[in-house]
Amino acid sequence: MPAARESLLDAAHTALGRRPWSAVRMVDVAAAAGVSRQTLYNEFGSKEGLARALVRREADAYLTGVERALVSHAEPRERLAAAAEWTVLSARGNALVRAMLTGCWAERLPSPTLSAVPSSSAVPAQRRADGPLPSPGDFVGLVRDRAVASLTVPGVSKSEAAELARACELVVRLGVSCVLAPAGEGGTAGMVRDALTTVRSVS
Asked: Is the CB of residue 55 less than 8 Å from the CB of residue 130?
């Protein structure tokens, strides 16, 4: 991602941490990033375009973190526990991630439509941001599929593959539930380990 675009997204994210999105001004975002307002409009087209790009970046960063978690341990159960923990930590530290995972968009956040919007941007990254944004259900599928791909071994039977997919979806949904209602003793990872105790495909 070009440096100016990344700086502008950083500035927008910082501004959102200080005030509601409705009070974030494009001129202030440009000034904080050290670029002209015209550069900001050339890159994103509008404040709505900036919001979509910010949401897309945070979604991508969350999914990248999931992928890191899924290779962080040798044991499959621990890899799934790490992915669930990342989900909770990421949502706790980032209001946009929390909103994307739960569908609960607070008034202070931007709330771009999740469907694609018409795009005439010459910037490839903006054309992608103007495409469909993931819904909470989409995230369940995206994380589940990454987990299945990470844990599938050669020669697995269809029934074992189906069991693994169900286990991975269970873990994703447990992680999201812990975003809404934090886990008690043992934390999210402990809850995942307990839930997977009888699942042969991830033992």
From this structure: no
Sequence-ordered list of residues with C-beta below 8 angstroms from that of 112, at least 6 positions apart, any chain: 48, 51, 52, 55, 133
Cβ contact 54:95 at 8 Å = no
The tens digit of pLDDT for each residue in 170-191 reads: 999 999 999 999 988 889 999 8
Residues 6+ apart with CB under 8 A from 60: none
- Reported as a single tens digit per residue, the pLDDT across 22-46 is 999 999 999 999 999 999 999 999 9
Owner of token pair 């962080």: 72
H helices present in 70-113, as ranges: 76-93, 95-102
At residue 199's C-alpha, the angle toward residues 194 and 203, to 5°, is: 85
Q: Which of 157-184 are b and which e, b meaning 16 or more Cβ less than 10 Å from the residue's Cβ?
A: eeeeeebbbebbbbbbebbbbbbeeebe
Q: Is the pTM of this model over 0.85?
A: yes
Alpha-helical regions (H) of 19-135: 26-33, 37-44, 47-69, 76-93, 95-102, 124-129
| Phi, psi of 196, deg, nearest 5 | -95, 5
CA–CA gap between residue 115 and residue 94 (Å, rounded)? 22
The burial class, CB within 10 Å (0-12 / 13-18 / 19+), for 91 is buried
